[in-house]
Specification:
single chain, mainly alpha, Hypothetical protein af1432, 2 domains, disordered C terminus, binds fe (ii) ion
Length: 416
Amino acid sequence: MSETSASFRKAIPESEESISLSQILSALSFAMELTDGAMHGHSLRTCLLGMRIAAEADFTMEHRNSLYYALLLKDIGNEEMLGLRCDRGASIVSKLGMGSLAADAVNNLEEHWDGSGHPYGLCGGEIPRLARLGAIAQHLDMFSIGRSPQVAIETLQEWSGSWFDPELVEIALALHRRDALWPSCNAMDSLASTRAAVLALDPHRRHRLDDDQIDRICEGFAEIVDAKSHFTFRHSIGVAELAHGIAEYLRLPAHRVRLVRRAALLHDLGKLSISNKILDKKTRLTDSEWKIVRQHPGLTRQILEQIAPFREIAIVAGEHHEKLDGSGYPNQLMACDLSIESRVIAVADVYGALSEDRPYRAGLSFGEILPILNGLAGHKLDQDCIQALLAYLTDHRPMDINPEISTRGRLIRFCA
Ligand SMILES: [Fe+2]
Ligand SMILES: [Fe+2]
């Protein structure tokens, strides 16, 4: 069986590995491509194509840096609503501290040279140059993977001056003629080789992110997951808040509390692969739909494992639906397999989910959740974690709590 959170803690001494922005973003861009109808590896290949054209044109270093992050993150958000996608992508790009140039590029990717694009109908030089280049790069990949590189080049030529900036088209064509445009961007190239080529181009690959920057990125991605369905619009952020509270009340060391919060923020990343037809369904799920839902913790782990310093976060987040008695999923792990960090997130997730509205029921009150937690304590969910949660809620959210059962002594007896 693969490694569990408990065995990981015993086997591997903690190490301070450095982590670069592109390492995180390239793994997380893969997560975004798990959504309906997306093309695997599209952001990575678009980034590579765009950076090659930018290197050939006279783009400044600052512009190239911004282009790199803008293209990795360009598809953040809702695939169906173009305007919404550009807007939200841009706001998240700037929230992640990637600067206004990158945000502007994402915001204007769907503009056309002749003014026929969206969302503003900008024309020629009014469109930021980074966005004009990004539009060419994303077109090249979409047509090359969907049809062939030859068709991608022919359509690029055909739409030069209508959709695309003619000067940048010429540069792309020159690269194509020299066989310098497509390496690691072909349909038969592995995603791993494309990813390696993208990471090698990272302008900041030697720049180590600090803890606050990593936290901000995790929060940005929690927002993306939460935005997928209006029923979960604050789920990951809320679970992270509760998990952080539980971990502090259990007096875990500060670096373990941080790990718990990051794993909680990212725990449902794998849900990006589940169709909204299933997530928002008001009636009972069929067996095959339920099977799809049960894959999401494994996918979360698979995505996060691509970021080497996130190995433990990947394992802990991937265990959020496991139960102490082996009745959870996806691996039916037992109590001895589950670390305290993983148990904290399982408790926070159950409380968060019960308190939120779902397509088939309204959110439950504290008084309704308490007996449910009580019934799960000890055999499914960790009792100490539940007690820590109740103590945390008593101190921090007294308004949520029915006054009759709000004394801490009573709460603890409830789950004993
Ligand atoms: Fe989940
Ligand atoms: Fe969850």
